[in-house]
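To whoever is on call:

I kicked off a structure prediction for a single chain this morning and the downstream step that reads the tokens threw a length-mismatch warning. I double-checked the sequence; it's 301 residues and nothing unusual in it as far as I can see. Pasting both halves so you can look.
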Amino acid sequence: MTQAKRPTKAEIATEALIKQIFVTGPADVNGLRQVCAAANESDDRAAEAIARFGLGNFLDGNVPGVEKLDHRGAIDEFTRALELYPAWPEAKFNRGIAHVHAGQYSEAIADFDEAEPLFLEGVSRGGSLASAQDRMLLGKLCLFRGEARAKRREGDDLQRAREDINQAQSLFLLSTPSARYWLEQIPERRRAVDEAIDETLSGSTSRTTATNAWFSFFWGFGAIAVALLILLLFIVFGASKPETEREGKKAALVQPSHLASEARSSPLISGRTATLPPATYHLSASLMQDVRPCILRIRTR
């Protein structure tokens, strides 16, 4: 036998629990906790699921007059109700809203995505008051899912948030007259998403501008560094070239002085008597003996 999506009053086995839940009703959170405990002890699944669903609404602030909210506690109560009735669309939807209130946007979107096909089953039946009610609930689901996506802002969340809000407006127009309250919230929600999109685009432009500015800064700094390096190399090599020229000129000046010193040491220039080898002396003496009679003969004439 297929289990029903939602628990009903007819499924509650204990008359006292029926009276506590539907007749007198719990006046506060403590009363609901007592009903949950009693239903759990009697193993009345339907009564416990309904009581935990109501307790989750109290803790999340869906019931007027609640002083202290506990969104995480509400999530726990809706989770326990879903453990008893896993296909209960309202429980998934309300848990998604509690996730939004707790700032857990990814978990909220996951709950809304799981609840959507369950609501669509009711919408597809068409024509009945139940389908109109399902349309309104589905419209609320799209509205809150759009809010969760607009706040999460991952990937294409903002664009899909706008689509969710447009879909919610279409569903509210085909829903019950009580959906007028939600229709009045559409313009404000759409404006918030548009502002978030503009903010994201302007932030992206600012980041691009900042990146270009840093790139220009480092490019200019690199050009200056290269210019300074070239200037430094020019100074270093320019200073070493005159030094080399000075060394060359000094060598040129020293060389003639050396040659002059050698020239002054020559016997023809210095006036000193040249020291000739012995063979040269012998040759000169012999030559003089042969030439001397000729000189004397010339003088006597």
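Update from on-call: the warning came from a stale cache, not from the record. Cleared it. Sanity check on the structure: The two ends are 177 Å apart (CA to CA).
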